[in-house]
Amino acid sequence: MDLTNQLSFLATLIPEYLIILFLLIIVFMDFSTEKIAEKIPAVAMSGLLLALLANLFMTGTLYETEKLLAGGEIFVNDGFAFLFKFMILASSLIMVYFFVQDDEVNAYKTRKGEFYILFYSMVLGMMLLASANDLIAAYIALEVLSLPSYIAAGFLKVDKRSSEASLKYLLFGAVASGVMLFGISLLYFSMSSTSFQILVSNMSHGIGFDPVMILALIFIIGGFGYKISMVPFHFWTPDVFEGAPVSITTFLSVSSKIAGVAVFVRFIVYSFAGSNLMNQEIAGLGFNLNSFLVLLSILTMTVGNLTAIFQNNIKRMLAYSSIGHIGFIVAALAANSEQGLIAISSYLLIYTLMNFGAFLVVLLIKFRIGSEDIRDYKGLGYKMPFLSVMMVIFLVSLAGLPPTAGFWAKFYVFTALMEAKLYLLALFAIFNTVIGVFYYFRVMKVMYFEKSETAEPLPILTGGNKTVLLVLGLPLLILGIYFTPVVELARETLKIAGF
Amino acid sequence: MVGLSHFLVLSSILFCLGLFGVFTRKNAIMVLMGLEMILNAASLNFVAISRFSEKLAPAAGQVISLFIIVLAASEAAIALAIVLNLYKNFYNVNIDEINTLKE
Fold it and tell me: What is the CATH architecture of B4-94?
């Protein structure tokens, strides 16, 4: 790579520079007087907005830097990375609003700066993860994201549940990433490189899978699988989601998953899908990588959705439901086609909106009735009509039923599966959608058809709350009628990526 | 003559011991020690492979192991802080006895 090319590549990293700059500004604001420290949320918001705008303006230059993909680069900034960074930054921007609303977090007044520093390091880790194109780079980005997440999950220091969530997250996460690192070192041994493309270039010479490599791949997929909470690496998810403050749970379930999916998809696509490796039989074992992904996908959605039925804590239920959604994304990845990748991108865009919405409602209800238990939601449909109607939109969309965009997101996954002739997987996906309908509708049933004993009026919503709820909810209805823009955006960004 | 295979065997033993420690120990501190062994096994692998392989760029593995050392140190710092806070809340660092969350 010559100098001009290198400089033009460095210029595409402007959003990351902005995040680092604002991270430092927040550190200094935290050091200064209390009056200045009060303004940290506003500064955090403007920093993210600037980075988002920079990311949008960068798209134009992406067409010219296409040739950067040629070599084994450590970081790539293509359309795929752009789309995922857009989702990460936009969701983080909404997150700041969550943080301002979350009274649990705000109770620690003097630690406000600390909280936003953790938040910004997580955003930086996610952005690096979205464009990592090397296993070592991916590992470091993963740690930059994970280390602040452990602390953020245990941010409520005197709360027993929060510190337990933090410990469980730490132990699972650290072991998963340590094992993944060992897997990377094994791959380094058998392939002499850590680049994502290395498998394709080595395997095209006719070298088959050897036992060391299979072990290495299992370890690495396990490391990525832990981040997106894919079964059987999902055990941390429900406990951490239940114990952490609501706003951090939201961040972990949406933005962190987006970044994890980005790196996982890039790893699978760049290492295998470019050649016919996906369908090459592994060392005479009678199955290939594709059937391995199909198996993981079936496990993930079935375990996630079946366990969600029995949950009474709504955060725990949404944790299992997010595992189920990851199952759909892995299914689309197993389809191993352009259609599948488009389905992944559009699914994640819709997933962001609906999951954010559901968690915002949970957060607002929690600070009004003081509970996260579904059984305490009795009669809320009449006490808080606006909030409940929005919750119904988010839940119907999560269940994947027609008038909302959630239906189309699932529809494109099905289309990709049918085109790839994965009929068994498609059958399981339909089966899981039905289970999903069951437990999402249970929440609605409690809200509308069960009478509450008390009838005391609840504090009403502020205008800001209503606006954010509408910003998240209306697109779901509008895109439910006219979904083409999302698919076109996904197709266009993938075209730049050259997948 | 000590060759690459000796190092790989040693690192595999380290890795297995670390994993064994992680899964059998009940004390959070001991689990963290197992974790350090896993990371060091990977680090040893990188250095040894880079030293004995002719195909690789010189010192590539050593640079990677420097990154790993830095990350392992920061991870240990965070982990100990979390365990300390846990002890303040539960007066205990036994993983089995810390279960206020469901299951």
Answer: Orthogonal Bundle (1.10)
